[in-house]
From TrEMBL:
It is an enzyme of class 3 (hydrolase). One of its GO terms (biological process) is quaternary ammonium group transport. This is Fe(3+) ions import ATP-binding protein FbpC 2. It comes from Pacificibacter marinus. Keywords: ATP-binding, Cell inner membrane, Cell membrane, Hydrolase, Ion transport, Iron, Iron transport, Membrane, Nucleotide-binding, Translocase, Transport.
Length: 368
């Protein structure tokens, strides 16, 4: 009885929840049955290629566009279904878009105070609290044109957070920034958002940004969320070939199922649950190929973990700083496989080497 009571009172509810959201343009479902929930202090990244419906989803949540089906809840309260509609300013949602524009004629302090209610002293306290968080207390009296792009971005963050929104929607907020600035600003932004306890839905098409920022990634394709989970899980257990390919280069080796196995030049792979004759694809990321030297035409002895080695000839090797990118022309079928290796190793073109696939790093998918 007591335990049950504790469990109930300690339940944390999502700050943002969307259920079965759909948006149709010219007969096409641009957003198609999208559902997700974001908890307080959590960052969820809506990640996907250009045109997959990310911004459209955000615009419906913000209230600047209206869904054709589905519901949006903030702090458990319905803010929009196809009948009821709370206007954007009543939703307790903060916005930060790529082309965030500060008011050029207002000081930094006035920009941050813009959406604030309350007494002058309260407003000033909140403005100073936020500017301190984004490390710009010293720029209080400056005007936007006196700030760098990164500083302007931090002011925009402070402005969006000032009224303590329950939810922050961010659409590619870092894409206008200098490449070298980005990582620092991403980290400091994350710190401020976490400290404020806001639930964040961040849109990006960059997997690195999503993995850096997100507690959870919702991978979107053609209007649908195809996979959702922690970055580690999405990266290491993709649902299909396209999901795997969204995060890195991939190698694909074809085969056909016979007796729950598929035979390849790299040995046999288990693929239970597929009928005999099913064409399948074995997918592996370049960093998970193992390379061994050629010993007078022979490779290493096979291990159960690595399967059978297959020989390839170095077609091209590129030094990339931290690693080298090596393309091999494989003896068994003339196809190209790509491996990344530590950059201390940069083999010459024409070098024969042996490749092995780390079994635990291979994904087997039915051919699409
Ligand atoms: N008002 C509109 N009328 C018609 N089609 C639209 C409208 N808004 C968006 N679309 C279409 O919906 C699809 C999804 O657009 P959306 O802007 O949501 O993509 P996105 O995932 O944000 O892409 P990007 O990464 O390029 O910003 C696109 O094909 C776009 O052309
Ligand atoms: Mg967009």
């Amino acid at each position: 009885m007591n335990a049950q009571k504790t469990a109930q009172t300690s339940t944390v509810h999502p700050r943002l929840e969307i259920r079965n959201l759909r948006r149709t343009f010219q007969g096409r479902n641009v957003v198609d049955d999208v559902s997700l929930a974001v908890m307080p202090g959590q960052v969820t990244c809506l990640l996907g290629p250009s045109g997959c419906g990310k911004s459209t989803t955000l615009r419906m949540i913000a209230g600047v566009d209206m869904q054709d089906a589905g519901e949006i809840y903030v702090d458990g309260a319905l803010v929009c279904d196809t009948v009821h509609r709370v206007p954007p300013e009543g939703r307790s949602i903060g916005l930060m878009f790529q082309d965030f524009a500060l008011f050029p004629h207002l000081s930094v302090a006035a920009n941050v105070a813009f959406g604030l209610k309350g007494s002058k002293a309260e407003k000033q306290a909140r403005v100073e609290e936020l500017l301190e968080k984004v490390d710009l207390l010293g720029a209080l009296k400056k005007f936007p044109h006196e700030l760098s792009g990164g500083e302007q971005q931090r002011v925009a963050l402070a402005r969006a957070l000032a009224p303590r929104p329950s939810v922050m929607l961010m659409d590619e907020p870092f894409s206008g920034l200098d490449e070298r600035l980005k990582d620092d600003i991403r980290d400091s932004t994350l710190e401020v958002l976490k400290a404020e306890g806001t639930a964040v839905l961040l849109v990006t098409h960059e997997p690195d940004e999503a993995m850096r920022m997100a507690d959870e990634i919702a991978l979107m394709r053609d209007g649908k969320i195809v996979q959702q989970g922690a970055p580690y899980n999405i990266y290491n257990a993709p649902v299909d070939k396209k999901s795997a390919a969204f995060f890195s280069d991939i190698n694909v080796i074809g085969g056909e199922v016979q007796g729950a196995l598929v035979s390849t030049a790299f040995g046999e792979f288990l693929c239970p649950g597929h009928a005999d004759g099913t064409p399948v694809e074995i997918v592996i990321r370049p960093q998970h190929l193992r390379i061994d030297f050629d010993r007078a035409g022979r490779g290493p002895n096979p291990t159960p973990q690595d399967g059978t080695p297959a020989r390839g000839i170095v077609e091209r090797a590129r030094f990339m700083g931290r690693e080298s990118l090596v393309d091999f022309r494989m003896d068994f079928d003339g196809s190209i496989l790509r491996a990344t290796v530590p950059s201390v190793f940069l083999p010459k073109q024409g070098t024969p080497l042996w490749l092995m696939l780390r079994r635990e790093r291979c994904f087997v998918f039915p051919q699409t």
